[in-house]
Specification:
The protein is of the alpha+beta class. Among the domains are: 80 residues, no CATH class; 121 residues, no CATH class. 41% of the residues lie in helices and 23% in strands. It has eight helices and 24 strands. The strands form seven sheets. The chain has a five-stranded antiparallel β-sheet with strand order 3-20-5-15-16, with no helix packed on it. It has a five-stranded antiparallel β-sheet with strand order 9-10-6-12-13. It has a four-stranded antiparallel β-sheet with strand order 4-19-18-17. A hairpin with a 2-residue loop joins strand 1 and strand 2. It is rod-shaped and about 165 Å long.
Length: 497
């Protein structure tokens, strides 16, 4: 039908031109922004997915930033511990020099003590001066808080890590149960079980030369018949610091028990007769010759100690003598049980209620799980081991170098070096296996999340360029068609002429 009132063809052309103009605008917008989704109406479901990915990326970036700061913080702590370790090696050298018999005995001990005091002061300065972002790292501020620990059961304790909730608000219970007691190594010497005289007896023979060995060394002793048992014990004990073997009167002043100074499977006592044992006489036994049972007399005997078997939260821990290392899912710690708890095979409990250095490597800000690491105090009042603290080396204390026990001082410093080395190793392990592995995992997560977000939100430039060219061509065609449609009513007027 030909009409001048309604131009249907023009309406179709206008609609087509409007649609192509909208598609052209959309293509131009996507090309100019590089995004496929510029407003919610572009793809509502895609917008939801895209915003979810962007939220995850924010969490990943925050976790990576936390990991980077944690790495730098622990680097500062490790640097401080490294310098303290160097000072401890210098202190060890000073102590070894103090034990040199060729040193000037008038002025040298005082000078050595002054050197030791200067080193101890330097250690305290480092322990109190190693900081990061306002946090004290080595003075005990980052150590864990322990509640209800019984000093009658636990001699010393170091908590290395605990699985605490966010902000340290939760508490980790610890239950310790001694299943098997640790034991010292032992060997026995028959003094005079036949007559019970309380003096050394060798039949018709003369003096007997023994050799006693322990963890620290070996020493030979020669005893003449008639030597009192208490004198024999005193002589053996005077060399305990060199041998690691101590003696005591056993049963009815008839025998001597030789025991290692330490507990555990690494401890041993070896006794043997070098010469002088009379025919038919045996002096070395594997059990008390004056006791019950069937002790065996031997030319030589080596006794070995036994490690304790200790359950921590129901899990068997690694023990070395009385020292226990527990690494279960809740808590990582090292502690030493007392001899009383060991002998009575008692149980004890306490809780880790807070403290430590907590790091958030989780992308979920609501997560209550944090990576936690304890850094114990390395001041001279805390650093050391079972033998004592470094503060014992100060003037007037038991291990000072002027008139104190230099052997004790050497043991304390050796244990302090071991403690610092273990602290550095724990920090290094945390950096390598917690921080570095978290960083690698976060980088992979960032790559995949970014890729997923790009797939949803980013514009395909090749596709949008093709769409732009297509929209331009169709728009030109629609404009031509509109022009033709607009001239069509004028041709109808020709019918009136």
């Amino acid at each position: 039908m030909n009409s001048i009132h309604t131009n249907y063809a023009s309406m179709i052309a206008q609609r087509s031109l409007m649609q192509q103009s909208r598609q052209l605008d959309q293509a131009l917008t996507r090309l100019s922004t590089g995004l496929r989704i510029n407003r919610a109406s572009d793809d509502p479901s895609g917008l939801i997915a895209s915003e979810s990915h962007r939220s995850a990326l924010v969490g990943i970036e925050a976790a990576m930033s936390n990991a980077g700061r944690a790495e730098q913080m622990l680097n500062a702590a490790d640097a401080g511990l490294q310098e303290i370790n160097t000072l401890l090696l210098d202190l060890q050298s000073v102590i070894l020099g103090a034990g040199d018999g060729s040193a000037d005995q008038d002025g040298d001990p005082a000078i050595r003590q002054q050197e030791a005091e200067a080193i101890l002061e330097a250690i305290d300065r480092l322990a109190n001066g190693t900081t990061f972002n306002g946090h004290q790292l080595l003075n005990g501020d980052l150590d864990y808080t322990v509640d209800d620990k019984d000093v009658a059961d636990i001699k010393w304790l170091q908590v290395h890590a605990a699985r605490l909730g966010q902000g340290g608000a939760s508490s980790v219970p610890v239950e310790i149960d001694v299943q098997v007691s640790a034991a010292k190594a032992a060997a026995f010497i028959d003094v005079d079980t036949t007559n019970g005289s309380g003096a050394f007896y060798n039949g018709a023979g003369g003096s007997v030369t023994f050799e006693f060995s322990g963890n620290l060394g070996v020493q030979q002793f020669t005893f003449a018949p008639g030597t009192l048992i208490n004198d024999m014990v005193d002589i053996i004990n005077s060399f305990s610091g060199e041998t690691g073997v101590e003696a005591s009167v056993s049963v009815a002043s008839e025998s001597i028990v030789l025991t290692s100074t330490e507990y555990g499977s690494d401890a041993f006592v070896e006794a043997k007769v070098i010469e002088g044992e009379d025919t038919g006489i045996l002096h070395v036994y594997d059990a008390d010759p004056a006791g019950a049972g069937s002790p065996n007399g031997l030319p030589e005997f080596r006794g070995e100690g036994r490690d304790a078997e200790v359950l921590v939260n129901g899990v068997l821990s690694v023990s070395k003598g009385l020292e226990v290392r527990s690494m279960n899912t809740l808590v990582d710690m090292t502690f030493q049980i007392t001899e009383l708890m060991n002998l009575n095979q008692r149980s004890t409990s306490f809780s880790v209620s807070g403290g430590g250095a907590s790091f958030q490597f989780d992308v979920d800000p609501q997560s209550d799980l944090v990576s936690s690491l304890g850094i114990e105090s390395v001041t001279t009042g805390s650093l050391g081991g079972a033998s004592g603290a470094l503060a014992s080396l100060r003037s007037g204390n038991s291990a000072n170098l002027f008139d104190g026990n230099t052997d004790l001082a050497e043991r304390i410093v050796s244990e302090a070096i071991d403690s610092v080395t273990m602290a550095r190793a724990r920090i290094g392990a945390f950096q390598r296996y917690s921080i570095d592995s978290s960083m690698r995992s976060l980088l992979i997560a960032m790559e995949n999340t970014t890729s997923a977000e790009s797939q949803v939100r980013d514009a395909d430039i090749a596709q949008e360029t093709a769409s732009l060219a297509q929209a331009q061509i169709i728009q030109q065609a629609a404009m031509y068609a509109l022009g033709v449609a607009n001239t069509q009513p004028a041709t109808v007027l020709a019918l009136l002429g």
